[in-house]
Design goal:
The protein has 428 residues and is of the alpha/beta class. Helix content is 33%, strand content 19%. The protein folds into two domains: 6-120 and 161-286 and 413-427, Alkaline Phosphatase, subunit A (3-Layer(aba) Sandwich); 291-403, Gyrase A, domain 2 (2-Layer Sandwich), CATH 3.30.1360.180. Helix 3 crosses helix 11, helix 9 (207-221) packs parallel to helix 11 and helix 10 (235-243) runs antiparallel to helix 11.
Amino acid sequence: MPFDLTPLSGTDDLFVPNYQQNIYRVLPTALRCLGVRIARDDLFDQPNVVKHLKQNKALDAERVLVCIVDSLGAQNMLGTRIGTFLRDLDFLTLSSTFPTITSAAIPSITFGVPPTTHGIFGHVVYFQEYGSLIDTLKMSGYKLRYRDAIPHAGIDVRALLWTEGISTILQQTHPSLVVAEGLPQEIPGTGLGRFYVRRENVISFNGFIDAFGIVRRVFDHFPSQQLFMTLYFPQIDTLAHKYGSNSSEFKAGCNAFQRQLHAFLESLPASQAKHTTIILCADHGQNPLREDQTIVLTQDQLAEVKGTLKVPPGHSGRVNHFYCQSARKRRKLKQWLLEHVEDRALIFDEKDLNQAQLLPVPSSKRIIQRLGDLLLIARDGATLRVERENDSGEPWGLLPSQGLVANHGSLTADELLTPFVAFNAAKV
């Protein structure tokens, strides 16, 4: 059952994130289904969520499995088997964070706090501590682009975090609780995983079949201990980017996931199933891109305002981050951008950001230092593209590459609305 999003002032296609019914509250809610409470906000102050948990007998569990499916937007999944499966369980909708990008949203889920608390605001953003842009997904920079270039240069990226993750808290407060993190084998110890993964908790897998096979092994290995496990699935995100969220490929990915989930549920012995709660959520959805809405800038145009920036601009998919040399130059760049994007994007400064309440708290100096003095927020179907002859590390070289059919980061309902369902495994 969806909730109403508040439209962003002056638009009918962009919306304000809901931080009360938000993805960052999922894991604290899942832990309360085990009777475990930590110092993080959960969803138990939302009557519709409590009603849902009771109806689906998700409370008083001995083990909880949380499936985090990247890019399974609540609107994108309509017409797929997983959409039908979740509808039959009366799924709820939650809001993603801002920006609606994996690099900010996944830490929000795993840390149990929004980006304004954990400090990771996007895909390619500026970190003043090191005076550089960092690609948080690959842990690389705009000059050193190979994967993990930043940590290989001797930088401890975890020092950039503003808080600690839920798995770290659980180790300190509930040492007897079995905690397991199921991740694709390419994630632990590299890229974004360096921010939020505790290697001692990780069990790697390869694909949907292997993932649920590993869950069965974990359940069998700890038959009588209280257990909390997460699984993260990135495959559907790749399909949505490459083929679009309305494509047969995207739907096939959703259907394949549903088949394996259903097979896993059927394989659970009744003695395990009745004490197991399954929770499914996502980090964001996807917005189909339209060529007629693309904002195309040339190198000659960009040269006009190149001197306003102290570092190259960053990006979080359909949101772009600009870091200006001064307030005067920020005003110059804002006016220039407004003239070039026309009605295909909004250009927000800090005042606009606060007035629109895009963040759960008022901005601060350290938030703006990372998020940017100016934000380009693309409207429905739009994205910024820079024409360039090569990708040689020029200041605009970190903007999104061409060839994506769908993307995210901005504030359409497609991107913001994500599914949430919790149910007793014996119920299905």
